[in-house]
Design a protein that fits this description.
The complex is a heterotetramer of chains A (265), B (313), C (491) and D (328).
Chain A lengths: L1 H24 L32 H37 L1 H16 L2 H12 L3 H11 L1 H16 L2 H8 L4 H12 L1 H24 L11 H10 L5 H31 L1
Chain B lengths: L1 H27 L4 H6 L5 H10 L6 H14 L12 H36 L4 H15 L2 H15 L15 H35 L2 H8 L4 H38 L5 H10 L3 H29 L1 H5 L1
Helix pairs in contact in B: 1-12, 5-6, 5-8, 5-10, 5-12, 6-8, 7-8, 7-10, 8-10, 10-12, 11-12
Chain D lengths: L3 E14 L2 E14 L3 E5 L6 H9 L7 E8 L2 E2 L5 H7 L4 E4 L13 H12 L4 H14 L5 H5 L8 H13 L5 E5 L7 H17 L3 E6 L2 H7 L2 E6 L2 E7 H6 L4 H9 L38 H5 L5 E4 L2 E3 L2 H6 L6
Parallel strand pairs in D: 3-8, 3-9, 6-7, 7-8
Antiparallel strand pairs in D: 1-2, 1-4, 4-5, 9-10, 10-12, 11-12
Helix pairs in contact in D: 3-4, 3-6, 6-7
Classes of the chains: A mainly alpha (265), B mainly alpha (313), C alpha+beta (491), D alpha/beta (328).
């Protein structure tokens, strides 16, 4: 059971990554090319996923949409990772008041619906890919902070930390050079799950029209646009949905697989 | 008791912090509430009159304290967009979000928990594997996509459910629930998956415990052991994540209200943000935070009901 | 015995439902800004409250002003004094007779007398004073001549003793106000003592507020609403045959506005190049599916009297000519620019996407920047901080109100267009009492706008109203309003 | 001797790991008579708990059980799940080692006792409650009415073990399997629990299978003793003989470990080495490498169980030679 999760996850992600890299150089049709005559044509050999209300090829748009999904997901997770680990490490290691305050803030952020926070952020600093990434990044900080803090609390008591202290290593050195390498696996697991959440949040925001703006293609926005024509062109709504699910599924499987491995160690 | 005070107090600070941030940020962001209300043909005299009415000319700090004083006296000030007390606006919209959240919470509990137990009982066997696979997919599917598909399938094709529009509880409770079923299901699905996974792991942990052996030694059958002993013990950790889930339900409902165009808090907030209706945005934040505090409070009470150990310390 | 009583009871309860109360539910995209007519400015509000309030005069479906609260009126030869005769027996919704004091109160409230703040700068700058010569006549004298001022007398007359005109609005229109639920609906009821007999023909109108076009369509399809004005043209072929669709020009001008202070667009050749590059027919087909009338200048053909023919094909799409002009202007390989578009008007966002493709052909790389409506109003409309934008200007009754937007000192001239010759023509037109001469001047103004390529005047997007088959009598106005008094339900 | 209640014949319990079979219990035979207290003693990991669990039918699902467990003439192993379940609680009950965790933390102790009655006896809730009060009084609880409503975490270790005992004796079963019932308790409470068990055995006809690693406790409680080592029975005898004349070297070593007043001052004896793990299938006597009297023979062959005195058997080549029982 342990291995299957990782393999399924890896297979899905490799497929999507391949599609994404291909889409950078080649898509069956230019992504923005409109062709009014071919409006709403159903899936066919010519247009694998059919065309949308401007006659644009949905497959090409979905393929290039994957670029945004990966791009936003990766950067958002990166932000969440860097700040989350930093906060988690410091509060886990130092503890005391600092820990108390940061954890209170983290709990409050977790209690607050993520989308709401992103909405506020985007409304304040304006829509667009830059702000979407920052918003989702900040939203994922608490989960990283929590995971890191708990592993730091645990590792703080281990021998190798005491011996490092004995050698007179400064707290910063201990945090980054001694403990960090030992706590990477829970962080990796939470970054895969974080990636899945980031993709879902980006899709959500774009669906509300507040996420990624044209000309960047986005699955969430495609879903929003497709909803109007669902009764005459249902395929328009199905294609982007499937790919969001696939990407998130891939990361969930990967995350679970890693988690099983890690619990085995 | 001290425990609740501390938790409530920290939530209070966060609410105030969030509202201060919103207040300040609303000053610096582009977009003018007066213009977005009056539109293109607004006459300069009308603009000045409205600015006066909404006392936008007063300095920032005084406006914040007027608002804060108002919050504690229950008067959240007037919405810029509707010139109607913010609390009236929110109160008649909050019922939608609240009932929606309630239905999806019930769905989550009454579908997630049993399925979780079944998947634990038949772990590594056909039913167990099937349920975990489905829950894996359930977690991955974006809730608004499920919403669109459900609306298409049940609304347009099968015409079982009304496609949009909301019947308020006071008009007709049954129809109200009917109009909220599809949205509630789409919010519930990803959370049901989470509950299934949590429940399964918790039940498996409890099965290893000693008191289960004692129960078996009394001659109880597996299902009796599950329902009489394991369920109650396994549900405690699940209740804690229900607190977290209630936050995602509120978040989820913001998007789902858009899919099914339900007049809930979510859409009210989005419109409020786009029309820079500061008092309304502040009001909604306070209401949502209060709702979260209440939900967490209820969950803590649930905790003490089920787990006597907590009642004493 | 008991059963019979029970049966009777049931029938009694069911009865009201059967008495056929003719009710029509109309979709509106957003909430009214104010119910108080003098404070309201948003076109969305006028669309509904046209049925509740009436001024001394009222607009008719051909765009002229006809008597309403006033039975008849006359204008002095020098155009400076307007005399209005109060219509006999006309009543407010609360049953009270309309008096001259109410008229004076309404007009004074607008122009702001005895140091009260004015609610309309046009009233306060043009009207000298308002007085009643007798129980039935009101005389309004003007500070200076303005031939188009007459259309301003359509402003609502409200009762003097109404303490809160915003909470419970009272007027003289065919319908009276019933209730307003913010974010959900505005409901108005038939006013039985309306001065024009036989009208309205339905008992109640509910304006249901549905912001999302997609939800509105679904509500229409499922029968929850009866009429959805300005339906998204792409949704038309989703309607089955038990709906009827009414299409016509709506006196709206959709244009690609160019900021004349921008270094590229200050050069007329660049503006002309863009006019040659933008293929208006392709836009009309792609975005409006053909439901749009091509324009040449800032005037829609609906304003028959003032419309200058033949300007729409002044710039036949011609890519080579456009490139040539760009080369002359010093930008042989084009330049980069942005099109700022209000995100809540999908129609304009789609137009922008088509224009971006068209401008690529002559080397201009345009990026779309979607902003919220509030932001667009502040940044583009008020502060003029933009390069180019796409917007639709709603129709007005008088040509002066439409064309005064380009006069250099006009407060909302967000194009930053200043052309003394143009200003002179408009100023002369508004002072010209001879109607024929004034019309000719307004036509010359349109010529300048086209030749000077002030903006790219794309189309008058057809007003499309989808409604149930059984609704009859709908009349289109060259204004942003829904006249529900002429609606009837055919059986 | 009164009527034979349980007859365990050639009982073996094994687990499969990567196609290889490993035996935790190897062909064990012993009987339990009505009203008798049989002691099952040995170091932890010698299969004594597993034997107890197999009798009540609570062995882990992947355990392979062979041989016979005859209860009143019926082989429990041949019965289906349903029949097996009906014996649990009614005929056979069990007391576990860890009083802290063997009670459901979220259920009142009284209810946990009453549940056995409701499951196995035809009683309504009210009758069952009265019976529970009776049982609680019989185990020495004072204020039973308030105690009924208490939760496990409100009781001390000793009191909790008494509750477990109440559960075990509720339907006054034929056999109570007590798996190290007092190990987790402190000495003073231990004595009370042991007296309680003795009292129960005398008052009711329930026989007890007392599993322990502590010979001192066994001495006090049991009439019969079975010594197990690495899944085998190495010595079986009545209480008197085993203390006066321990035959198997392992039993002798165990007896030396018992701290006694006269041994005060000198170091406590402990057996060198440790119990072989279930996965080493080497033949010969499992105690070989820890036995100070080991012979060459012991390395290859597994000695047979022989009777040296009435009701006193052991399995050891050295004892055979010492007592001249060297038939082939």
């Amino acid at each position: 059971m342990k291995k299957t999760n990782i393999t399924i996850g890896a297979v899905i992600l490799i497929f999507l990554l391949a599609m994404m890299t291909v889409s950078i150089f080649y898509t069956p049709y230019p992504v923005t090319q409109m062709n009014i005559k071919e409006r709403f044509s159903p899936p066919s050999l010519k247009h694998f996923f059919g065309t949308d209300n401007f006659g644009r090829d949905i497959l090409s748009r979905v393929m290039s949409g994957s670029q945004t999904a990966f791009f936003v997901g990766a950067l958002a997770v990166f932000i969440g990772l860097v700040f989350g680990v930093l906060i988690g490490a410091l509060s886990g290691y130092i503890g005391g008041i600092f820990d108390e305050i940061t954890m209170r803030i983290m709990d409050a952020m977790l209690a607050f619906p993520g989308i709401l926070f992103a909405l506020m952020f985007v409304a304040i600093f304006g829509v667009g890919i830059k702000n979407t990434i920052t918003a989702i990044g900040i939203m994922s900080i608490p989960s990283f902070a929590r995971v890191t803090r708990s592993s730091y609390l645990q590792h703080k008591e281990f021998e190798y930390v005491k011996s490092a202290k004995a050698k007179g290593a400064s707290p910063l050195r201990i945090i980054f050079f001694h403990i960090l390498p030992n706590v990477t696996s829970p962080i990796i697991v939470s970054s895969t799950l974080g990636f899945a959440r980031a993709v879902l949040s980006e899709a959500g925001l774009s669906y509300l029209g507040l996420g990624v703006q044209p000309p960047y293609p986005s699955w969430g926005r495609m879903l929003n646009e497709s909803q109007v024509f669902i009764s005459i062109a249902p395929w328009y709504a199905i294609a982007p949905g499937i790919f969001i699910t696939l990407l998130v599924l891939g990361f969930n499987f990967l995350g679970d697989g890693l988690q099983d491995l890690e619990s085995l160690k | 008791m001290y425990f609740y005070l501390k938790k409530g107090f920290s939530m209070l600070i966060t609410i105030i912090a969030v509202t201060v941030i919103t207040f300040v940020s609303f000053q610096i962001i582009p977009g003018d509430p007066v213009l977005s209300r009056l539109g293109v043909d607004a006459d300069q005299a009308q603009i000045d009159a409205l600015k006066e009415e909404l006392n936008l000319n007063k300095p920032l700090a005084t406006r914040y304290f007027i608002w804060l004083k108002g919050v504690f006296t229950g008067d959240m000030g007037q919405s810029f967009r509707y010139s109607v007390p913010v609390s009236d606006l929110i109160l008649n919209r909050i019922s939608v979000t609240f009932i929606l959240a309630l239905i999806s919470l019930l769905l989550i509990i009454f579908i997630g928990v049993p399925l979780g137990i079944i998947s634990a009982r038949y772990n590594n066997r056909i039913p167990g594997l099937f349920i975990s696979f489905i829950s894996q997919i359930g977690m991955a599917v974006p809730s608004f996509w499920t919403g669109i598909l459900l609306m298409f399938l049940f609304g347009i094709v099968l015409k079982w459910f009304a496609v949009s529009g909301y019947v308020s509880w006071s008009e007709n409770p049954l129809l109200c629930i009917k109009s909220l079923t599809l949205p509630a299901v789409s919010i519930a699905i990803p959370n049901i998956a989470t509950v299934i996974r949590y429940m399964k792991n918790m039940v498996l942990d409890e099965m290893k415990k000693e008191y289960v052996k004692t129960a078996y030694s009394k001659g109880l059958s597996t299902s009796q052991v599950l329902s009489k002993h394991i369920l109650k013990n396994a549900i405690i950790p699940v209740i804690t994540i229900l607190g977290m889930i209630s936050a995602t339900i509120l978040g989820g409902s913001i998007i789902i209200e858009q899919v099914f165009s339900l007049p809930g808090i979510g859409r009210l907030l989005i419109n409020a943000i786009t029309t820079r209706d500061l008092p309304l945005v502040q009001g909604i934040i306070v209401y949502i935070s209060v709702m979260i505090v209440i939900i967490n409070f209820i969950i803590d009470i649930f905790y003490t009901i089920i787990d006597p150990r907590i009642r004493f310390n | 015995m008991k059963k019979i009583i029970l049966l009777l009871l049931v029938i009694m309860i069911m009865l009201p439902v059967f008495i056929f109360s003719a009710k029509v539910v109309v979709r509106v995209p957003q909430d009214p800004d104010f119910l108080d007519p003098h404070k309201a400015a948003a076109s969305g509000t006028e669309e509904m409250m046209f049925n509740v309030f009436e001024g001394l005069l009222k607009a008719d479906s051909n765009g002229n002003v006809v008597p309403a609260v006033a039975e008849r009126y006359s204008v002095s030869p020098d155009g400076l004094v307007y005399t209005f005769k109060l219509r006999k027996g006309i009543k407010f919704h609360n049953g009270a007779l309309v008096t001259v004091d109410d008229i004076i109160y309404s007009l004074d409230r607008l122009r702001g007398v005895n140091n009260e703040k004015p609610l309309s700068s046009t009233f306060s700058s043009f009207i000298k004073d308002v007085k009643a010569t007798d129980k039935e006549t009101v005389v309004v004298s003007m500070k200076e001549l303005n031939t188009s001022f007459i259309t301003n007398f359509t402003v609502a007359i409200i009762p003097k003793n109404n303490t809160d005109p915003n909470k419970n609005p009272i007027g003289t229109g065919p319908f009276k106000f019933k209730e307003y639920l913010p974010g959900q609906r505005v409901v108005i009821q038939k006013f039985n003592d309306y001065w024009k007999k036989g009208v309205p023909m339905i008992d109640e109108v509910e304006f249901r507020i549905i912001t999302d076009d997609q939800a509105a369509l679904l509500a229409l399809l499922s029968g929850e609403i009866d009429m959805s004005p300005r339906i998204d043209v792409l949704q038309l072929d989703l309607l089955s045959d038990n709906f009827q669709v009414i299409k016509s020009e709506q006196n709206m001008v959709q244009l690609l506005a160019l900021n004349h202070q921008n270094k590229y667009f200050s050069d007329v050749r660049v503006r002309q190049a863009i006019n040659y590059a933008v293929d208006k027919d392709e836009i009309i087909n792609a975005v409006a599916l053909g439901y749009g009338t091509k324009l040449g200048s800032n005037m829609s053909p609906v304003m028959k009297k003032y419309y200058r023919e033949g300007l729409e094909d002044y710039y036949q799409t011609n890519v080579t000519k456009a490139k040539e002009l760009l080369r002359q202007a010093g930008y042989p390989n084009g330049f980069r620019t942005t099109i700022t578009v209000p995100s809540n008007y999908k129609f304009h966002v789609d137009t922008a996407q088509v224009i971006v493709e068209q401008l690529k052909k002559i080397g201009i790389i345009a990026e779309i920047e979607q902003v919220e409506w509030g932001v667009w109003l502040e940044r583009v409309y008020a502060n003029r901080k933009y390069e180019s934008t796409i917007i639709g200007l709603t129709g007005k009754l008088s040509a002066y109100d439409i064309l005064k937007r380009y006069v250099s000192d006009f407060s909302r001239n967000f194009y930053n267009y200043s052309n003394p010759m143009y200003d002179e023509i408009i100023r002369k037109a508004v002072k010209e009492t001879d109607d024929a001469k004034a019309t000719e001047l307004y036509k010359q103004a349109q010529d300048i706008l086209t030749k000077d390529a002030v903006a790219v005047y794309i189309m008058d997007p057809n007003f499309i109203n989808a409604m149930k088959k059984e609704i009859g009598g709908y009349t289109v106005y060259p204004l942003y309003i829904q006249d529900m008094s002429v609606i009837y339900i055919a059986k | 001797m009164n009527e034979k209640l349980f007859e365990i014949k050639d009982l073996s319990i094994s687990f499969r790991k990567k196609e290889e079979q490993f035996f935790a219990v190897k062909s064990v035979d012993f009987d339990i008579h009505k009203g008798e207290i049989v002691g099952l003693v040995g170091e932890s990991g010698c299969g004594k708990t597993l034997t107890g669990l197999s009798i009540i039918g609570l062995t882990p699902s992947d355990a392979i059980i062979s041989g016979q467990i005859n209860f009143k003439g019926m082989n429990l192993l041949s019965k289906n799940k349903e029949e097996r379940r009906s014996t649990r609680g009614k005929n056979i009950s069990m007391i576990f080692q860890e009083p802290m965790t063997s009670l459901n933390p979220l259920m009142k102790v009284g209810d946990q006792i009453r549940e056995t009655l409701l499951i196995n006896m035809r009683m309504d809730k009210f009758q069952a409650k009265q019976k529970v009060y009776e049982i609680m009084k019989s185990v020495g609880f004072a204020d039973v009415y308030s105690l009924y409503k208490k939760y496990p975490h409100e009781l001390s270790g000793g009191m909790r073990q008494r509750v477990v005992i109440c559960i075990a004796i509720a339907c006054n079963p034929d056999l109570i399997i007590a798996d190290e019932p007092t190990t987790a308790l402190d000495v003073t409470v231990q004595a009370q629990i042991l007296d309680l068990l003795k009292k129960i055995n005398q008052q009711t006809t329930s026989s007890i299978l007392f599993i322990s690693h502590d010979f001192g406790v066994i001495k006090e409680m049991c009439s019969q003793v079975i010594v197990m080592y690495a899944g085998h029975i190495v010595e079986k005898s009545c209480i008197g003989r085993i203390f006066s004349n321990p035959l198997h070297p392992y039993t002798q070593a165990l007896l030396k470990c018992i701290p006694a007043p006269e041994k005060k001052g000198n170091p406590l004896f402990s057996i060198k080495g440790k119990v072989p793990s279930i996965y080493d299938n080497s033949e010969g006597c499992p105690f070989f490498n820890r036995c100070s009297f080991a012979l060459e023979k012991c390395r290859k062959e597994l000695p047979k169980l022989r009777e040296y005195e009435p009701e006193h058997l052991t399995r050891c080549f050295y004892t055979e030679e010492k007592n001249g029982k060297t038939d082939s």
